[in-house]
Amino acid sequence: MSLIKLITILLLPLLLTACARAEGALAPTGVAGQAPATDYSDQPEIGYLPDVEAASLAPIINYVDGLNLALTGEFEYIKAAATANCSCLDIAGRIARLLKTATLLGGDYQLTSVKVVSDGLRQKSFAVVVHRGDLRKVDRASKQSVIWSKSEIKNQFIVTNTNGGWLLSDIK
Fold first, then answer.
1. CATH for 54-171?
2. Where are the domains of the chain?
3. Beta strands 102-106 and 109-119, pairing class
4. What pLDDT, on a 0 to 100 scale, did the predictor assign at position 128?
5. Residues 119 and 132: beta-carbon distance below 8 Å
6. Quick one: pLDDT at residue 2?
7. In this structure, are residues 95 and 71 in contact, taking their beta carbons and an 8 Å threshold?
């Protein structure tokens, strides 16, 4: 028997067992344990997103997604979420300047909280919290790297209904 066949025969059961465990095949069988009943009826319902017109939240979500893409050099998505004169686009310019001489690694942005500050027909304001993970900047010429520690960013996002669509118009 060849060495390759022997190794395959010996490793195959190990691989199949690992697959079965990943699929939960070795989970205990029988009667499932009863979790204690919890009554949440006296607690207010807390949702992740506020109860406003869904389309008005889209620019905020798209902006945060656009920040992640901007770290790779793709700026169209972030620009599409905001009006041309929004101060929120300043970060896109700073990232574009950094990317000329450096590579950015990590630093993913995650939307962690959105709360309504004001809810008008043509303009809405939201208190927004965004978490940014550690970001490593690697200078291409010197190969030096710097880590910018994770941070929690709190801003007020203002969205405006322009020509039937909502866009991010300012950040304070």
1. 3.10.450.50
2. 54-171
3. unpaired
4. 93
5. no
6. 66
7. yes
* Strand, helix or coil for residue 61: helix
Q: Which residue has the tokens 């017109």?
A: 53
Of 68, 88, 113, 52, the closest CA to residue 167 belongs to 88
Of 104, 19, 113, nearest to 68 by C-alpha is: 104
Query: Contact, 86 vs 100, CB < 8 A?
Result: no
For the chain, residues with pLDDT lower than 50 are 18-46
Cα dihedral sign, 57-58-59-64: positive
* Torsion of the alpha carbons at 47, 53, 55 and 60, rounded to the nearest 10: -50
Sort strands 165-171 and 109-119 into parallel, antiparallel or unpaired. unpaired
Residue whose C-alpha is closest to residue 60's, from 69, 49, 74: 49
Model-level pTM greater than 0.85?
A: no
What lies within 8 Å, CB to CB, of 170 at 6+ separation is 86, 87, 88, 157, 158
